[in-house]
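Kindly go through the entry underneath: sequence plus fold tokens. Please state briefly how this chain folds according to its tokens.
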Amino acid sequence: MSELLEVKDLSVSFDTPQGEAQAVRDVSFSLKSGEVLAVVGESGCGKSVLCKTVMKLLPPSAKIKSGSILVNGTDIIGYQERDMCKLRGKLFSMVFQDPMASLNPSIPVGKQVAEAVKIHQKGLSKKEIYKRAEELMRLTGIACPEEHMKWYPHQFSGGMRQRTVMAIALAGNPKIVFADEPTTALDVAVQAQILDMFKKLQKKLGMAVVFVTHDLGVAARIADRIAVMYAGKIVETGTAEEIFYDARHPYTLGLLRSLPMYAEPKGELYTIPGMPPSPLSLPKGDAFACRNEYALKIDYEEEPPMFCISDTHYAATWLLDKRAPKLPAPYR
């Protein structure tokens, strides 16, 4: 698989009345063609901002401070809106968390899918456009699309609305799809169906997916690789197997321990102590230090680098430094 997307040392901040909020800090990652990368972390850690930065969908208050975004080797960091319009939909597309907010309640869903086809596949006749829209709806698992195309969004269930939004996202045959917590508002049974649909479409169409979620269980079901974010930084990255069976960052371990399968005998779930720091006033050193029971003195003074665990597995914690004291597994 070739490198399709490379993000290097990306930093993004927001100008607020209270000061500068650092949303994304020196983030680097790559995405190969046909790969599923899950970006995991608590709310507010910068996951959605990271995806919207790549697509240049940030509000005016946002500012890209540094870094590069390479798509097929071309840096698009300086692209203006006119240039980005040529990429959105065709090169990359996005599926948002709330499908009802993405759909027009006064227009039949079939017409909305057809509109996306018309924009991205010019030269098609009206009949061909609606035929393609019907194919996309069938592809995303909407039964009897020829009938359901006449329905309005409020007549669809949450799962069917999410499938419709996915059909719109696929209208331009994108190479990369950013999925921003698309299953959060769905019940468990429908969530599983949507995840299976994503995986099936990803394999069938050969597209790459960046799947944003706060749920490691969701990431386990769909991801090839996982990047764990905390306070605007990627603190651990590796294959799904490495993250789930050989996690090294204390934050990743805390997320894993909070899964229901690791519940205590009384049924109580583990919770990571404390709260994430405010992006307006980030602490010196490691941002996770105040919540880390194994924090070292250096954690409060200096940010840890990314330590190499294997060719595909990296974690930013001083606990992996050779000079660190002997600690319980998995740090030994």
